Structures are given as structure tokens and as C-alpha cells.
Amino acid sequence: MHGLCLLRPVPSVPRMDLFVRTARAADSLSSWLRRMTFKDLLPHQVVAEIRRHVVAWAGAHGWPVTADLVCSRTDAPPIAIAIGDDEPSAAGAVVLRVRWRDSRELVPAPIGLVTVVTTSRVVDGLRRYSAKRSCRARTRQGRLCPVGPRSSGLCHLHDPKVQCGATKRDGSRCTAPTGGVRCTNHRGRSATQPGDAMFELD
């Protein structure tokens, strides 16, 4: 099984602390993997590419990483990373799962889910997968935005710099994508501060 992370027993960590550490690690790895691009790779090649980026992410933090994708940390529990739908089990450790193709299987807490958005097509009878850099925002449904980003890391729908920005009657900020000018409903109204988009960001 690809990417299964096995851990030695580690000291127990309070459950709430483990949830917080997992959320932070998942956000960090998600941001890193959004930079990843590849085209028409076979499944085993996708796994290898994700592994390469995970190792680079760990290295950027100064964490030694084993062949089983276990990141050792001197001041915190280790991080174990599974690629695909394997079920890593490591009591007291921060456990992340990187999912790169559609699956309806729920991820049990406190495992952190990291999603790599891919597309696929059949080439010469074989299904191949591609990934491009994606926007760092999430939709109202909590899904990763699949639209390609601008230089800001946000797409034309989520970047506050190219939204209407006017204050609505309820006090919230209008996030209509307009290229940075007021929308037809808010011409002549003042803008709120940039960055107050109604979409949740990682």
C-alpha cells in the first residue's frame, strides 16, 4: 500500500491539543501541495510525486523524514502522512491523509485530510491524472476551490482585490467578482477593508 505511515509508540497527547496540531499541520501541508503541478501521470507516478513534495515540505521545516513518511520533531509529536485511502494508526501522533482522487469515504477524527485537486483522462487505454496550482480559498460548501490562482494565490472569484468590495446593507462585504470595480448594485458606495471576503481561507 502506497504511502502508509507506521509509527513507533509515542507519549500520549491531550485530545484537544492533538486536534489543534493536526489542523495546523494539515493547513501547512495543503498550502505546500497547492504548488504542485503534473500532467498525465499514472497512479503510482502521482503517489511518487506527492511523496517528493511531502519530503520537501518536511525538509523546509527542518524535520527528518523516514521512508514511511514519518516526520520527526524534537518539540512536538511526530507527523505521519498517508497517501491515498490507507488507514494510518498511530496513537498520540499527528496523522494526515493526502487524498488525490475522488472518494466518499469519511476521514475519522483526528486524522487531518489534505486534498490534492486532480483531473483525469484516459490515454491509450490508461487513466492518467493531472494537477495544476489551485486557489487557496474554499467554497461555501467547504471544498477546495479548483480555479487557477492569480499571483496572490487566490482566483478571480476569491481575490478581494478584484471583487466589488462595497459594504452591503447588512454590513457585510460584497464579494462579487468585478475586476476590482463596484458591481451594478453598489456603484457609488464605499468599500470595506480588503481581505474581508465571505469565503473561508486556509
Entry keywords:
202 residues; alpha/beta; 2 domains; four-stranded mixed β-sheet; three-stranded antiparallel β-sheet; 2 helices; 7 strands; 18% helix; disordered N terminus; disordered C terminus
Question: Given the helix and strand composition, which structural class is it?
Answer: alpha/beta
Structural Rg? 20 Å
Spell out the helices and strands N to C: HEHEEEEEE
* Beta-strand segment tally: 7
Domains (count)? 2
DSSP helix count? 2
The stretches of 5 or more residues where confidence is low (pLDDT under 50) are 1-10, 191-202
Query: Gap between N and C termini, in Å?
Result: 30 Å
Looking across the biggest beta sheet, what order are the strands in?
A: 2-3-4-5
Helix content: 10-25%
Shape: globular
Average pLDDT over all residues: 81
The major sheet is characterized as: 4 strands, mixed
Strand percentage lies at 15-25%
